[in-house]
Design a protein that fits this description.
CATH architecture: Orthogonal Bundle
Shape: elongated
Number of helices: 5
Number of strands: 2
Order of helices and strands: HHHEEHH
CATH class: Mainly Alpha
CATH topology: Arc Repressor Mutant, subunit A
Oligomer: single chain
Strand order of the largest sheet: 1-2
Largest sheet: 2 strands, antiparallel
Structural class: mainly alpha
Radius of gyration: 24 Å
Low-confidence stretches: 86-102
Length: about 100
């Protein structure tokens, strides 16, 4: 996650619902910059917006982190244990390539 967005989420978790101006003042960044990040966080489901204030709940953040970790393990982490290789699937022209026929 982007450093600024991470700081915003942590701020909201510690301080409760806050406006863009309040968040910006405390994080030493402009309200427009905060607003841009908050809209991305809202679209991702990490923060909620109501009555001119944004908020974050530990449950939403935990769910997001869990989904991110699961996706990471599926797409990046190697499988556990020995891996069987089907050479017919990895050879570009089939298993016959390189074999002599008599």
């Amino acid at each position: 996650m982007n450093k600024t967005r991470s700081r915003i989420v942590r701020f909201l978790l510690r301080n409760g619902p806050s406006s863009c101006g309040t968040i910006g003042t405390n994080l030493h960044t402009s309200p427009s910059n905060v607003r841009r990040h908050l809209h991305l966080l809202r679209d991702a489901g990490l923060v909620q917006h109501s009555s001119a204030k944004f908020s974050a709940s530990p449950e939403h953040v935990q769910r997001y982190v869990g989904a991110l970790a699961a996706g990471f393990h599926v797409s990046v982490m190697p499988p556990q244990g020995p891996v069987s290789i089907n050479h017919e699937q990895i050879l570009p022209f089939g298993p016959q390539l390189g074999r002599r026929t008599s």
